[in-house]
Amino acid sequence: PKRAEKLLKAVRRAVKIPLTIKIRSGWDKSGSQAIKLAEIAHSCGIDAIAVHPRTASQGFRGMSNWSIISEVKKKVSIPVIGNGDIVKPEDALRMLSETGCNAVMIGRAAIGNPSIFSDVLALFRGEDVPQKSLCDRFDRMIKYLKDSVEYLGEKQACFMMRSRLGWFVKGMRFSSSFRESIKHVSSEEQALELIRSYQDMLMQTGQTNL
Ligand SMILES: Cc1cc2nc3c(=O)[nH]c(=O)nc-3n(C[C@H](O)[C@H](O)[C@H](O)COP(=O)(O)O)c2cc1C
C-alpha cells in the first residue's frame, strides 16, 4: 500500500488531466485490499476508480464478486466504475442497482458485440434492446477485421483475428468449426472468405436473427 500511495501521488503531481485507476479485488477473496487501495487513491486525489472484483490469482476464472464494488462505493466519494461479467445489456443495469456504482465498464462482451453499449443506453432510456440480425453481426465482424488490418497491419491483425473473431460467434450454430477454421488465418482475404462462407452456411439453415 505504501508503494501504491507513493506511485499515485507522483502521477497525480505529474498530470493535470483526470486521473483514474483500475484495480482488482486484491490477493485474497475478502476484498480488503481493494477497499484499502480505493481509500488511498481517494486521498491521493484520484478522480475515479474502476473495480474488477476478481483476485489477482483468479485470472478470469469464477465470477466477479460484485459485493466488493458495493463495499468500495461505500468507502469513497469519488466515482466508482463497476466491472466484471456484464454479458448482456440487462447486466449493466443490474450492476448499477445492486452495487450503487456510478458507471459500468464492459470488456469481453464488447469484443464480439460492440453494440452492447448502445443496447445498454436503450435500456436506460426505457426502450427495448433492438433485435439484431445475423447480417448485422457479420457486417460488424468484417468491419472489425478491416479496421484492425488498417490499424495494426495485415500480419498482426490476422494473428489477433485467430482468437478475436471467435468472440463474435459465441453461441451460434457450428461456431466451433468456424473457430477451428480461423486458427491459422494469415491474410485479410482468407479471413473474409472464411467469415463469408460461415455466414452462408448459417443463412442456408434459415437463420436470420441472433
Ligand atoms: C483482450 C483483453 C485485454 C485486456 N486488457 C486489459 C488491460 O490492458 N488493462 C486492464 O486493466 N484490464 C484489461 N483487461 C481486463 C478487462 O478490462 C476487464 O477488467 C475484464 O475483462 C473483466 O471485465 P468483463 O467481464 O467485462 O470482460 C483485458 C481483457 C481482455 C479480454
Describe the structure in brief:
This protein is an alpha/beta fold. It has ten helices and four strands; from the N terminus they run αβαβαβαβαααααα.
What structural category arises from helix and sheet content?
A: alpha/beta
Low-confidence spans = none
Put simply, the count of helices is 10
CATH homology superfamily of the largest domain: Aldolase class I
Indicate the proportion of strand residues: 5-15%
Radius of gyration: 20 Å
Give a structural overview.
The chain is α/β, with parallel strands linked by helices. The protein has helices at 2-14, 32-43, 66-75, 89-99, 108-112, 116-124, 134-152, 154-168, 175-181, 188-204, and strands spanning 20-26, 48-55, 80-83, 103-105. It has a four-stranded parallel β-sheet, with helices on one face. It is elongated, with a radius of gyration of 20 Å. The mean pLDDT is 94. The structure holds flavin mononucleotide (FMN). Residues 22, 52, 83-86, 106-109 line the site of flavin mononucleotide.
